[in-house]
Design a protein that fits this description.
Beta-Lactamase; five-stranded antiparallel sheet; 21 strands; 19% strand; rod-shaped; transmembrane; kinase; kinase activity; Bact_2-comp_sensor_kinase
Length: 649
């Protein structure tokens, strides 16, 4: 079990490694390369395996055919030789001839007339018998019988000598033509040495000896005593073997030769298109050692098939020689055809692999691009399906998911906006309810009457009339209707009047510093955003004291954004107080204190977006900085369509 577990673990690691390495490559390359590699390896294996098997079968058949061809040629040559050997045996088996030879060998050189008569009679019998052996054999050039003391020629019935003669008997006795047959002890010997030309002549007068002949010799012995009587020899024209019919088939493929020590003795059905036997002594020596073989050699930069088989008891060979390029031309044609088919198959497989892989990778790339777009917030992007495969189904599911997600986002977004509208409407309703406790018109008119009565009693302006006048102006500014955004100057005037009213109860006034870097008459801001901030400073930063306190309002513009900085030198806030207020601003949840700040921040964000609103920083004992970020507007806008409030806000 432990061994099986180790195998499974190793298999899992190997699969993980291979998968990890493969996934480093794109799907297009991975599929294309693997598909091509698989097809190419299969095609190469099948092509070359088939060609190898075909070539192997061709070589086997060629070897078998060549071996049979050489063997049949050798047998037919051997049959021809046996015909001549049988003729020699007929001479050997003629008891009259053997007796005549024995009698002549026994006669002395100085013969009596009776002995001479016997000698001549025996000589004619022997030589006429030699002539009769030649009958019906046109290729026999000469037949002789050579004893240790003389030579016998072919003689016709009329006594006319035919054939040839040995001009130098002494030289003949020393040559292999006389010695080798004796070593064979009565077995036939075939010789093709070039020395034949210098030994055998047509007659004593000719200069040149016989050419293009093969000599067959046999030693003749006395049957009873086994005494050596002489050598029977046949000079045979080489063309005797040319008449042999060989199963060569197409003679353009190769040549069949009878090879001897001196080279080519004769050939059968020759072709000039096929190679000839080379004159290489080392090759013949090698043939003598092997006796029989089929070899592939290189000769004159040409691949040659050489097959040979030695004729028994001779130094001659039946030899077949052919060009391998010619013999294997059909095989080479098949090979080239296989290569062309392989190339065509590879090209076709590459095209098929490319388009099949492209049909998989391209839709995946398109789906990936659409996913990136939706991931970046473009939920309207959709995958365009153009197929019926699994990727198409995946694209359909993605489109459905994107559509559902988009609808869900719209629902959540609209629900949140509706919730915030309701919340703001509720707060506006609360504010309206508070404002409605005192009718602004009634209050303004009443204050105006009181101011005139005070002026009448005081015979002119007094602090009381001035205070009533400031408060009346403050109420009048709160009754403005129409567009809910006002100019920056109006907003600063409202805040200034509010501070004037507040300062009536302080002996030492809270100072107000105004700094602007923009045209405050052409820049518009929402109503009631400065007064709540100043009120927050008066109530929480200064408390009841006013000595040495100030509020600074600084406005500037940068990158189409209006920056209004409201800064005081009050008590400031601790870190936990500041953190709690900042959290309340981000969540739009009003704490127990600073309700006005949260309301201002909420109205700005609802109307202009999340990138605008209030930014608060504070240092204990040094004061608080509240920066209002607004878009730079040069026209009035109606905020009631967004906030759900009333014109009074």
């Amino acid at each position: 079990m432990k061994f099986i577990h180790m195998i499974r673990t190793a298999k899992q690691k190997w699969n993980s490694l291979v998968t990890k390495q493969l996934r480093k490559v794109g799907i297009f390359k991975r599929l294309n390369v693997s598909f091509l590699a698989l097809l190419l390896i299969s095609a190469l294996f099948l092509t070359f395996f088939s060609f190898f098997q075909y070539s192997r079968e061709i070589n086997l058949n060629l070897t078998r055919y060549t071996s049979m061809l050489v063997q049949n040629t050798r047998l037919k040559i051997q049959d021809t030789m046996e015909e001549y050997e049988n003729m020699a045996l007929n001479f050997y088996n003629d008891s009259r001839i053997i007796r005549a030879i024995s009698e002549n060998s026994a006669l002395p050189e100085n013969r009596s007339p009776g002995q001479e008569q016997l000698f001549q009679t025996n000589t004619f019998l022997i030589e006429n018998r030699l002539y009769s052996l030649r009958q019906n054999k046109k290729h026999i050039v000469n037949i002789q019988f050579v004893t240790p003391s003389r030579q016998y020629h072919m003689v016709e019935d009329n006594g006319f000598q035919r054939g040839g003669t040995i001009r130098d008997l002494d030289a003949f006795y020393k040559s292999d033509f006389y010695l080798v047959p004796q070593d064979k002890r009565g077995y036939p010997v075939w010789m093709d040495d070039k020395e034949q030309t210098g030994i055998f002549y047509k007659n004593e007068q000719v200069v040149y000896g016989f050419a293009n002949i093969i000599t067959m010799e046999i030693a003749v012995y006395e049957p009873n005593t086994r005494d050596f009587l002489g050598i029977l020899l046949f000079n045979i024209d080489r063309s005797t073997f040319s008449d042999i019919e060989t199963p060569s088939g197409n003679n353009d493929q190769g040549n069949i030769f009878l090879i001897g020590k001196s080279g080519v003795l004769t050939w059968f059905d020759p072709s000039i298109k096929s190679p000839s036997f080379p004159r290489i002594p080392e090759l013949f020596e090698e043939m003598l050692q092997k006796r029989k073989s089929i070899e592939q050699i290189q000769l004159d930069r040409q691949n040659i098939l050489l097959a040979y088989e030695q004729i028994p008891d001779t130094e001659m060979f039946a030899c077949y020689i052919a060009s391998l390029d010619t013999l294997l031309a059909h095989s080479y044609h098949i090979r080239n055809l296989c290569v062309l088919v392989l190339i065509g198959t590879v090209i076709a497989c590459f095209i098929l692999s490319y388009y099949v892989t492209f049909s998989i990778s391209d839709p995946l790339k398109k789906l990936n691009r659409v996913m990136k777009k939706t991931g970046s917030g473009k939920w309207t992007a959709r995958y365009e399906n153009s197929g019926h495969d699994e990727i198409t189904a995946l694209g359909d599911r993605f489109n459905e998911m994107a559509e559902n997600t988009n609808q869900l986002i719209d629902q959540v977004y609209l629900s949140e906006i509706h919730r915030q509208k309701l919340q703001l409407s509720w707060k506006n309703a609360q504010l309206d309810a508070m404002l409605m406790q005192i009718n602004p018109h009634f209050l303004y008119n009443t204050l105006d009457i009181i101011r005139w009565e005070a002026m009448y009693e005081a015979d002119g302006e007094s602090p009381v009339t001035e205070m009533i006048e400031k408060f009346s102006r403050l109420c009048r500014l709160g009754m403005k209707t129409g567009g809910n955004t006002i100019t920056l100057r109006e907003g600063i005037e409202h805040a200034s009047i509010y501070l004037d009213v507040i300062n009536f109860r302080h002996s030492e006034k809270i100072q107000l510093f105004l700094e602007t870097e923009v045209d405050d008459q052409s820049v518009y801001i929402p109503q009631f955003i400065l007064q709540p901030i100043m009120e927050n400073a008066v109530v929480h930063a200064f408390g009841d004291a006013s000595s040495g306190y100030f509020i600074r309002i600084h406005s500037s513009a940068c990158d189409n954004v209006l920056h209004i900085l409201v800064e005081d030198n009050g008590r400031g806030m601790e870190k936990n107080e500041l953190h709690s207020l900042q959290l309340s601003l981000n969540r739009d949840e009003a704490p127990d204190e600073s309700i006005g700040l949260v309301n201002v921040n909420q109205r700005i964000r609802l109307f202009y977006g999340e990138s605008y609103g209030l930014q608060i920083s504070s240092t204990p004992g040094k004061g608080t900085r509240i920066e209002i970020l607004l878009p730079l507007r040069n026209h009035s806008e109606n905020m009631t369509d967004i906030t759900g409030g009333t014109d009074s806000l």
